[in-house]
Amino acid sequence: MATNSGSFQLPGKTNGFAHVHFVCIPETFTAGADVQCSFVISEDLEINSHDWVGLYKVGWRSSSDYVYYEWSPAPSNYVPGMEVKSRVLFPGTVMSHVIIYV
């Protein structure tokens, strides 16, 4: 199964951009199977308890256009300026959409 990686950029504190990098996202999904979405949040993006990863239909226009979301778990030892590796699990019943970190 092929995998895909992608980055989402937001204005950051030090180098002009902060990144959320999605890693090992399958290009195809088995019908009904849950999908793990792994990602790395750079040290330039300060995370908080209201961050989430959402599924959107292609062509979405607003962060409120999500079809499904999962809260982005923050490590208990998180301090600002720390790179964070995390993941969420999406139920297979909703996996025909675009994945976005919000």
Overall description:
By secondary structure, this protein is mainly β. The protein has a single domain, classed as Immunoglobulin-like. 0% of the residues lie in helices and 43% in strands. The chain contains no helices and seven strands. It has strands at 3-10, 18-26, 35-41, 52-56, 68-71, 84-90, 98-101. The strands form two sheets. Strands 1-2-3-6 form a four-stranded antiparallel beta sheet, with no helix packed on it. A three-stranded antiparallel beta sheet has the order 5-4-7, with no helix packed on it.
The total of helices stands at 0
What is the CATH C-level name?
A: Mainly Beta
How many strands in all?
A: 7
Helix content: under 10%
Keywords:
globular, mainly beta, Immunoglobulin-like, disordered N terminus, 102 residues
Quick structural gist:
This protein is mainly β and 102 residues long. The protein contains no helices and 7 strands.
Give the secondary structure arrangement, pairings included:
Layout lengths: L2 E8 L7 E9 L8 E7 L10 E5 L11 E4 L12 E7 L7 E4 L1
Antiparallel strand pairs: 1-2, 2-3, 3-6, 4-5, 4-7
